[in-house]
Amino acid sequence: MRHIIPETLEEALHVIAQGPTIKLAGGTDIMVKHRASQGLAAKLRQDVVYLLNVPDLHYIRKEDNGLRIGGMVPIETLLHHDDVPKILRDTLLDFASPGLRYVATLAGNIANASPAGDALVTLYALDALVRLKSLERTRDVPIEAVIVGPSQTTIQDDELIESVFLPDASFTHTEWRKVGTRRADAISKVAFTGCVTLDNDIVQDIRLAFGAVFKTVYRNRSLEKALIGQHRHDVVKQSDALCEKYLENIAPIDDQRSNASYRNTVTKNLLKAFIEKLS
Amino acid sequence: MKTVKHTVPSVDGKGIMMGRKAFTDDFAEADSLVVKVLRSPHAFARIRAIDVSKARALEGVEMVITHHDVPRKPFTRAGQGYPEPSPHDKFILDEYVRYVGDEVCAVAAVDEKTANAALKSIEVDYEVLDPVLAFEDAIDNDCVVHPEEDIHEMFPIGFEPKRNLAAAYQMEVADVEAVLKESDVVVKHSFYTQAQAHVMMEPHTVNARIDYQNRLVLYSSTQTPFHVRRILSQTLDVPMQKIRVIKPRVGGGFGGKQALHGEMFVSLVTLKTGKPAKMVFTRKEVFESSYTRHPMRIDIALGANKDGTLKAIDCYALSDTGAYGEHALTVFMVAGSKVLPLYNKVDAVRFHGHVVYTNHTPAGAYRGYGAIQGNFALESAIDMLCEKLNIDPLAFRRKNMIAEGETSPIFEIMGEGTEGTAMNMETCKLDECLMRGKALIGWDDKYPRVKVDEDRYRAVGMAIAMQGSGIPYIDMGSASIKLNDDGFYNLTVGATDIGQGSDTILAQIAAEALDAPVEKVIVYSSDTDLTPFDVGAYASSTTYVSGNAVLRAAQSLREKMIEEAAKVLNVSKTSVAFDGKTFSTADNSISLVDLSNRLTYNDDQKQLAATDSYVGHKSPPPFMAGFVEIEIDQETGEYDILDYVSVVDCGVPVNPALARGQVEGGIVQGLGMAVFEKSAHTKKGRLIHNDMLTYKIPTSFDIKSLRTEFTESYEKSGPYGAKSVGEIGIDTPPAAVANAVYNALGVRINTLPITPERIVHALHTLNKEEK
Ligand SMILES: Cc1cc2nc3c(=O)[nH]c(=O)nc-3n(C[C@H](O)[C@H](O)[C@H](O)COP(=O)(O)OP(=O)(O)OC[C@H]3O[C@@H](n4cnc5c(N)ncnc54)[C@H](O)[C@@H]3O)c2cc1C
After folding, report:
1. CA nearest B692 in A: which residue?
2. Distance from CA of A93 to the nearest CA of B (A)
């Protein structure tokens, strides 16, 4: 096993082109996953490529139609950056704890592909595009096509997350709710991001994303689409029916943090409260 | 008072912050063998065969210990009075393993890596047995956790291992059932508490070596060094004079170190190999293989008259001691004896129950020691009763609770294992605590709840509590103090500072008695060779019991010093005044420095010293009222603890900052049990929440405001008016939070922790019922 510390993106891409490696960003998932017994080093069985300090991946840049965030920007930096959409900052404020936020990254959250990844819920809502780069190619993939299941992604061995792109969007109202066991260092039992744009009381855009209640973050574009063009009062009237539809589709589980029945109830309550705020 | 009731800095705070060597592992020999224990993957199994040949053959492995290699002598790991009220039901190693994490065998190797490799190479053939996991089904279960014949109780405690009973007890004053029948209103309810983990920062740690006098010397992170010495000697058949146990600074105990954990193994290794050995528990071992709090089911029935007079309390408790019966009876007893006297005016009271064996991690001592479990049940039930009576819960408590000068028959009937001791409450400022707390939390404006918005409410809840100050006629503490040249003192005490600050408190008490500045009193604590005896840090005993010993010793040294000064000044003792610096008569004086130098170097030389001890003849309870304000969201059942107000009667707080630290530390730990700390097992009995990632204790983000006040109170029997304050803080949060949740949403949660899942579920049920 080798430890490789590339100094440039180019160098990193060369390393990962040679075969499977462990791509280490902040390590806040990797070190937990590979932990050994106390006092011993983590059991990493493949070559490790340290990406966190590659300068090429540390930028936040405004582009036409959106914001591009380098894959290795620590969460804490995003929290204090004015160009980062408020709904994402709201989300990241509930992320882990200050110490972890200084090393944890968006790329790590995405590639880790946990159904309870907090940043993911809002990235889904924001229609984030993930830029995957290898020596050969660069592809911009919608986040829901990157993550396919718990710990499963379509990222290839020779690819890394170079950056995340957030298309411009302005909402009339946004809401982030994280339900965890305590206020810091607690993985979500349920998480919710809601964004809505109204124009003259008519819904122009609505996005509803749920964490920890399905095998990936759950967003249902056809249910959302059906609400567009409706008067906000009409949407409010459908809130119960809408909740039912979401409950039919999500599939929460029992685990050591919570149980399925609680997750169902809370999903319903959070969605209902969000919709009813339109009245 | 010049020193007592003043906040002086801890004697060890700065050194510890500077990273000076302080903790047990800091003192391990560099060449220590590393001792590791192979732990059972099964909740219950018999070891048919164990093959350690590969481990023994590994380079660097010095020793492998199986149950074939150790003396078969039942003992209890509990460090409490002797003979112990805990059954002798444990062997160093046994052919049975009784919980996931139990000890199968131990290895000693040159380093941790080799020790781990050795563990891996050991092959065990288990006959897996059906475990007893549900504690409510334990009594007379077909599966018997302790089928062996050679275990026993030290005196009658209701020990019937063939029925899975570690202990049983029953007491009754008057005829409870009759009084309940006559009562206008009766409330009956069951409450469940969980196996809370201590989560002390320093894991269980111990190391051993043979010194140049050929004696076994241990450093141990223990709350009870003298008991460790005795139990090692009795179990390993090593003469007591051959053992020395040193307790350096302990990084937290909370009861979890009131027992032996690695001591047996490192001692065996060092005795056998002659080499130093050490053991540091992994965090998983701390969770899985040390101690937890005793989970309990408590069935309470309360009877009252319409006018709000409480008539009867009936309390049955079923306690789960896990695989071994350490502290089984005593924790159970405290659930009654330090809870029920709160309402001392009842016509009838009964407390009875069973402590059962199961195949879970053993339960043991934990701050609160049964009182927190009992308090959750009783103080929740009192609020339920008030609701039924339609009487304000504060008014009800004021009418029925214990007051200064009063007593309760329970004090005399229930002790810890044996009978108790009658006593009157010389100090009991419970009413002041309650009224002050009520004002501080803003009860009148907030009770029962205030609406914040569509979904959120703010609500208040409260509970009252009592504890004790040591165990009368059992807990003994002692102190020696000597005068040095240049006029400073050494104070040696058996008392055990485990982070609570007792070294500081005891120095303050000595300093007060000698009119000396605290820095002139150098404290050394808990070393079985060097310090006088003390039972150790438990049962809220140190300030009261050990503090009284220090006070006596210091007063007696002061007498001796005055006597010597009188000789020098050529007057009678009674005409000498001493202000801490100078001995003076009407026209003459000698300074302390001069006197001490003279006694050391010049004239009539001698060492002035005094030793004294104290055993309590009563256990004056501290009291408190705890008030919580929460903000709860009915959509999710989540709630924030906005504020916790504690008003405490602990007599005179010797060091107000440290006393506050004790109360607030207790409150946070109590809130952990009330709100966050889940303890669940897989179907096969493995603990799920066994690391700090999954076991959630509150963080600074969860605790927004703690406000603590002390009432004016002076306990005559305590040192400078002090009672205890170490445990009382932990008792109120579970009931106070449960009551606040009820006041907010009308749902009564009877199971700890009070999670959003339970609240949402209860709301669901409530809505269904209303429909
Ligand atoms: C105590 C604690 C609390 C936590 N709390 C939260 C929380 O509240 N919310 C939450 O969502 N998560 C939480 N986490 C999980 C974790 O912090 C996040 O998932 C974080 O975003 C991971 O980022 P990282 O940079 O540390 O990733 P790493 O651990 O370094 O990597 C995670 C995964 O991403 C891959 N990876 C990393 N960088 C790249 C790249 N550039 N291209 C391709 N693959 C890559 C790695 O190979 C690995 O598979 C917590 C973790 C801990 C230990």
Report:
1. A185
2. 12
- The interface residues of chain B toward chain A in range 457-496, judged by CB-CB distance below 8 A, are none
Give SS3 for B333.
helix
Fold classification of B296-470+618-770 is: Aldehyde Oxidoreductase; domain 4 (3.30.365)
pLDDT digits (tens, 9 = 90+) for A208-254: 999 999 999 999 999 999 999 999 999 999 999 999 999 999 999 99
Q: Which of B496, B526, B509, B506 is nearest to B254 (CA)?
A: B496
Fold entry, domain B476-615: Aldehyde Oxidoreductase; domain 4 (3.30.365)
Cβ pair A269:B636 closer than 8 A: yes
Q: Which residues of A touch B (CB under 8 A)?
A: 32, 37-40, 97, 177, 179, 181-186, 189-190, 256, 258-259, 261-262, 265-266, 269-270, 272-273, 276
Helix spans in chain A (H):
9-17, 30-33, 75-79, 86-93, 98-101, 106-112, 118-125, 143-146, 221-227, 232-237, 239-249, 260-276
Centre of ligand 1 to C-alpha B392, Å, is 51
A71 lines ligand 1 (CB under 6 A): yes
What phi and psi values does residue A134 have, to the nearest 5 degrees? -130, 180
> Among A177, A179, A183, whose Cβ lies nearest the Cβ of B756?
A179
Question: What DSSP character marks residue B634?
Answer: T
B757 vs chain A: nearest CA distance in angstroms? Answer: 6
Cβ A270–B636 below 8 Å, yes or no? Answer: yes
Q: What residues contact residue A185 under an 8 Å CB cut-off, 6+ apart?
A: A96, A97, A100, B693, B696, B699
Secondary structure string (H, E, C) spanning A211-244: ECCCCCCEECHHHHHHHCCCEHHHHHHCHHHHHH
Among A9, A76, A106, A112, which residue has the most ligand 1 atoms within 8 Å of its CB, making it the best to mutate? A112
What's this model's pTM, rounded to 2 decimal places?
0.94
* A51 in contact with ligand 1, CB cutoff 6 A: yes
A37: closest CA of chain B, how far (Å): 8
Helix (H, G, I), strand (E, B) or coil at A74: strand
Give the tokens for residue A152.
Answer: 């499963």
Asked whether residue A278 carries a pLDDT value surpassing 80, the answer given is yes
Of the pLDDT bands very low, low, confident and very high (cuts 50, 70, 90), residue A39 is low
Rounded distance between C-alpha atoms, residue A47 and residue A19, angstroms: 9
Q: Distance (Å) from the C-alpha of residue B685 to the closest C-alpha of chain A?
A: 14
Q: Which amino acid is at B504?
A: T
Q: Is the CB of A117 under 6 A from ligand 1?
A: yes
- Euclidean distance between CA atoms B602 and A261, whole angstroms: 84
Under 8 Å between Cβ of B402 and B343 = yes
Count residue pairs from A and B with Cβ separation < 8 A: 74
For B606, the enclosing helix (H) or strand (E) is none
pLDDT, tens digit, 9 for 90 and up, residues B263-306:
999 999 999 999 999 999 999 999 999 999 999 999 999 999 99
Bridging pattern class, strands B310-322 and B348-357: parallel
Which residue in chain A is spatially nearest to B639 when comparing CA positions? A182
Within 8 A of A182 by CB-CB distance, chain B residues are: 676, 696, 698-699, 701-702
Cβ neighbors of B435 (< 8 A, separation 6 or more) are none
Query: Where in chain B is CATH 3.30.365.10?
Result: 296-470+618-770, 476-615
Q: Does domain B14-129+201-252+257-289 have CATH number 3.40.50.720?
A: no
The per-residue b/e assignment along B700-730, b for 16 or more CB within 10 angstroms, e otherwise, is eebbeebebebbebebebbbbbbbbbbbbbb
CB B646 within 8 A of CB B752: no
| Residues B138 and B168 sit within 8 Å (Cβ to Cβ) | no
What mean pLDDT comes out for the span B699-722?
A: 96
